[in-house]
Structures are given as structure tokens and as C-alpha cells.
Amino acid sequence: MSAEASSGRVVSEPSPVPPSPNPSPSPSHGPEQKIGGGLAGSKYVKLNVGGSLHYTTVQTLSKEDNLLRSMCDGSTEVTIDSEGWVVLDRCGRHFPLVLNFLRDGTVPLPETQRELEEVLNEAQYYRLQGLIQHCLSTLQKRSEVYEGGCHIPMITSAKEEQRMISTCRKPVVKLQNNRGNNKYSYTSNSDDNLLKNIELFDKLGLRFNGRVLFIKDVLGDEICCWSFYGDGRKIAEVCCTSIVYATEKKQTKVEFPEARIFEETLNILIYENGRSSGHGGMALLESGSVSSPGVGQSEEDGGGVGGGDRRVRRIHVRRHIMHDERGHGQQTVYKD
Question: Which domain holds residue 259?
């Protein structure tokens, strides 16, 4: 007995058919077929969304007037593969969120703006008005929250710093803050003054956000130094540190010349929107560059980004003289 007979299957050999002189093409059934009658007669639906498989009900898909409902009631033609899966040519990454919105009427949205915009695109494709409004209102709320935020670039190399300053159309304020670059101990109030400089930098960044580019450098040689740039070159510098001699040792002193820093920040606003082009702006700036009494000493040189014969105002904190506690008649030691 043959294997076919033992299994109960009847196998018949097809009789040979002579070829027709003009054969008519017979209908071929591929792995997918399009159905226009919809899925109204079904209770459950198998969805293949870009390779992501989902199993749900017609009732869930029909909760809102959307593309999926029209596929169920026959208004939109659907494509079903050989295994009965309804094929949707969309990315299936956010389709679970679409399904959960249809099930529950609400859904938590992604945190990142890019993913939220992707969900909005999917909602627009499936014509889910409720999810569309949910995405748009969330985008608006997040934009209101982040409006006015101040982004402070962090310098990673000297080349990056030079490129950033030379290409920026706005004035630039840089705070170089490197507390670890110190081989001496600090004076008693230096830590507080260092924190005050950092706090002032944050306040100025918020106050002049959009008008001045504030950048921070934690890799430089200076412990605390402010630099002010306009038209791609350095205009002024305020160094807040000095070395003083205490009893039998050197110490690093950090000052907080708040008035001078604020003055220099206001001075570089003349370079906003290219208003300082020509010598008129520079002359106006130099005419008002009188050092505040008791703050420090000012000196000039020709350095700075962009070179040229224009000088850079370098303001240093006042040089201090500290007496040691040795007996009378011994020499007083001065700062370097």
C-alpha cells in the first residue's frame, strides 16, 4: 500500500491538456489580496503594521471616526495577506500608542520632541483627531515651558573656542573657571567669591539671553577670569585672581568685582547687530572705559581674536599687600 493511500489522501494525476493556440491568462492569486467589503463580519482583527503584529477587535478600531474605522466598515480598501493579516504600510514603532489611545481615550506621550512629532505624524495619517489635539497641546505646553531658556555652550578646545567667537554675530562673554588649576591654598573668602562669580555669570546669562552669547571654559589656565568679545575679537578681560603672601606661604585670592564685570557686559552691547562697525563705536566704548575706583588696575595690549592694532583692556584686581605676623623690624613681604 502506498504512503498516499495509508494517509487517507487521494492523489489523482492530472490529465495532459493540449496547449491552446491562443491561451487566455488565468487569474493568479498572490500572497496578498485586496478586499473592498471591509471587516464588518469579523470580531477580531490581525494587523501587520510594518512588520509589527497586533491583535485587536473591530470595536476598538471603530471607537473614533478614523482611517481604521473606515477599513473595518468597507469605506477603505484593505490588503490582507495569505495568513489573514491586514497589512498596513506604516512604521509600527508608535502603533501600540495609537491602539492604546483608541482603547482608553488617553495615553502618555513621549518625552522627546522628536518622538512626539513622530506620534503626531502617525495620528494625522490615521486621522485620529483626539490624538492629534493631544499631541499639539503637549507640544505647545512644552514650548512655553522651555521658552526663555538659556543655553550655555561649554568650551572643549581652543580651536572650537576661536571658531565659535569668530563666527558669532553677537557679543560674547566667556567665564573661565578652573578651580582645580591651583597649586596654592585659597584665602578665607576666596571660595565664596568664586561662587559669587559663577552666580553672576548665570544671572547675566538669563538677563541678556538672545543678545549676548555666554560661554563657559573649565579647561583654561585661569582660575577665574572674564573675557568680553565683540566683532570676533577680545575687547576686555577681567581677571579675578591674584597670588598673595601670607605667613610663610603663598595663597590664591579670588575677588568679586561685580560692578566692573557688569560694566564690561554693558559695554560690549555696542557690538550687538554689528552696530560698532567703524571707529565710531570703538571711540565711544573707549571714552566710557574708565576703571571703577577701588576695583583694580587696567592695562592694554594688542592681543585678542582677530588681531589688528586695537588694544584689549585687561583689568586685574587690586594688588594687595599682606603683612606677616613676625616681629617688628622684619621685612614686609609683598605680592608678586
Answer: 158-317
Phi then psi dihedrals of residue 248, to 5 deg:
60, 20
Report the domain count for the chain: 2
94 & 182 share domain: no
139/172 same-domain check: no
Phi-psi region of 231 (alpha: psi -120 to 50; beta: other; left: phi over 0): left
Q: Mean pLDDT, to the nearest integer, of 91-118?
A: 92
pLDDT band (50, 70, 90) for residue 124 = very high
User: What secondary structure does DSSP assign to 131-179, as a single string?
Assistant: HHHHHHHHHHHHHHHHTT-----B---HHHHHHHHHH-SS-EEEEEE-T
**Cell reading at 142:** 512644552
The CATH number given to whatever domain includes residue 293 is: 3.40.30.10
Task: Output the furthest CA–CA distance in the chain (Å, rounded).
Answer: 132
Question: Which of 263-267, 278-282, 283-287 has the highest average model confidence (pLDDT)?
Answer: 263-267
Which cell is 231 given?
Answer: 566683532
- The answer to whether the beta carbons of residues 143 and 188 sit under 8 Å apart is no
336 occurs within a structural domain: no
How many CB atoms are closer than 10 A to CB 153? 16
Which pLDDT belongs to residue 20? Answer: 45
**32 — pLDDT class (breaks 50, 70, 90):** low
Query: Could you tell me the three cell numbers for 2?
Result: 502506498
